[in-house]
């Protein structure tokens, strides 16, 4: 059962018929891994922490830089040169001391991924490089863990749920095969509008909360946002028979 304090704190959430006390208990007992504590990871962590997710593991090896402050809303000028994961954990704990925050103060690699991903109920990709995304995609498919991706550059963003537990579920590499010649766009090369990150991160957090609370989440659907013209598009993707990740699993 929820404590009286939890009933009060999450009352606006538990009154939703799809959540209720049972859904809130599922959130309290859930654990997630957030990969990257930048422009996407900041709001994702804030919303999951506020929603009452019981354990949040955050991974990032970068330090806070002055160029981050335009969009990474957990950080301020006093946080410059501090590790992002450590700094975020301190802020999140102040906002909700009931949530257990665990820090990985380095970039997620194969060894760390193989250790942490089997422990959690879902993984949220908020990284800013495609190599990490391919790694996490492969490990989530291998360990049958739901994987909620987000990415944004300029005025544009995209979001996708990969859930290898589902029949015929496509993975990230089905839709974006590895290519040595593909441009590697990121915030450093093409810039980013901060609120676009908030929109994509909000959708990632919503998908995660629904999934953890036992609400059906659509997979095999790429959601694309055009912030310049305020338009959404949805694209259905299919599992590729020749995908090296899906074939092996």
From TrEMBL:
<feature type="domain" description="THIF-type NAD/FAD binding fold">
    <location>
        <begin position="10"/>
        <end position="244"/>
    </location>
</feature>
<dbReference type="Pfam" id="PF00899">
    <property type="entry name" value="ThiF"/>
</dbReference>
<dbReference type="InterPro" id="IPR000594">
    <property type="entry name" value="ThiF_NAD_FAD-bd"/>
</dbReference>
<dbReference type="InterPro" id="IPR045886">
    <property type="entry name" value="ThiF/MoeB/HesA"/>
</dbReference>
<protein>
    <submittedName>
        <fullName>HesA/MoeB/ThiF family protein</fullName>
    </submittedName>
</protein>
<dbReference type="InterPro" id="IPR035985">
    <property type="entry name" value="Ubiquitin-activating_enz"/>
</dbReference>
């Amino acid at each position: 059962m929820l404590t009286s304090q939890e009933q009060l704190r999450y009352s606006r959430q538990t009154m939703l018929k799809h959540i209720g006390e049972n859904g809130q208990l599922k959130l309290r007992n859930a654990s997630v891994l957030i990969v990257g504590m930048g422009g996407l990871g900041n709001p994702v962590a804030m919303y999951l922490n506020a929603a009452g997710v019981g354990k949040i593991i955050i991974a990032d090896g970068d330090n806070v830089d002055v160029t981050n402050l335009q969009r990474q809303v957990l950080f301020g000028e006093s946080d410059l040169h501090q590790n992002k994961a450590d700094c975020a954990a301190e802020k999140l704990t102040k906002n909700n001391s009931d949530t257990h925050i665990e820090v990985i103060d380095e970039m997620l690699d194969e060894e760390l991924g193989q250790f942490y991903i089997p422990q959690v109920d879902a993984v949220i990709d908020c990284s800013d490089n495609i190599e990490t995304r391919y790694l996490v995609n492969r490990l989530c498919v291998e360990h049958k863990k739901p994987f909620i991706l987000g990415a944004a550059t300029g005025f544009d963003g995209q979001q996708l749920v990969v859930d290898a537990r589902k029949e015929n579920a496509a993975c990230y590499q089905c839709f974006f095969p590895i290519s040595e010649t593909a441009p590697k766009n990121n915030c450093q090369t093409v810039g980013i509008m901060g609120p676009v990150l908030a929109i994509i991160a909000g959708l990632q957090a919503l998908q995660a909360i629904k999934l953890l609370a036992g609400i059906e989440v659509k997979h095999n659907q790429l959601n694309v946002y055009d912030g310049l013209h305020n338009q959404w598009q949805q694209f259905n993707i299919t599992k590729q028979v020749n995908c090296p990740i899906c074939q092996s699993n």
